[in-house]
Amino acid sequence: MTNGLTLRMYVEALLDSRVQRPLHSTPQPVLQIEVFISDFHVDRMQAAFEWILDLQPSLTHLVNMTMHSVPSSASTTLTPETREERRQHEAKGVHTLHQNRALIHTLPELYRFLLMGGHQGFRAYLLGGYERSTSAGY
Questions:
Q1: 9-15 average pLDDT score
Q2: Which of 11, 20, 117, 136 is deepest in the core (most CB within 10 A)?
């Protein structure tokens, strides 16, 4: 989710710097975005990016995003158990994103959610209790 918010901030800045008119005026040029991400992570990233870009005011009409799945099968550090753990983690993340999307429709609502502790990873980061995962990168 926070990756999606970061993407949205970049999109807003790029669109704003490309044209000298208010961001949400029409017409605006479409920004082409290519995302390359590991196969186990692509569904969650796509769900997050689409949701965050669609928050009101929506930017989806200004972005053409293509997700490219990069195979993680070549990794020698992934055991079958680690792969299954990742798959389950990502599936749970997609489910949670869909739940949050049903509740949060605007940028101010997302900011409240993040800053009031709704996103546990972000909350832990803000409070100094965040510990980076040591289990193969997610």
A1: 90
A2: 11
Span between the terminal Cα atoms of the chain, in Å: 13
d(CA 44, CA 72): 15
Identity at 106, one-letter amino acid code: T
Q: Are 4 and 110 in contact (CB under 8 A)?
A: no
The C-alpha torsion from 68 through 74 and 76 to 80, rounded to 10°, is: 80
d(CA 58, CA 78): 38
Share of the chain above pLDDT 70, in %: 73
pTM of the model: 0.77
Which residues neighbour 32 within 8 Å (Cβ) at sequence distance 6 or greater?
A: 64, 66
Q: How far apart are CA 64 and CA 38, in angstroms?
A: 20
**SS in 3 state form for 106-138?**
EHHHHHHHHHCCCCHHHHHHHCCCCCCCCCCCC
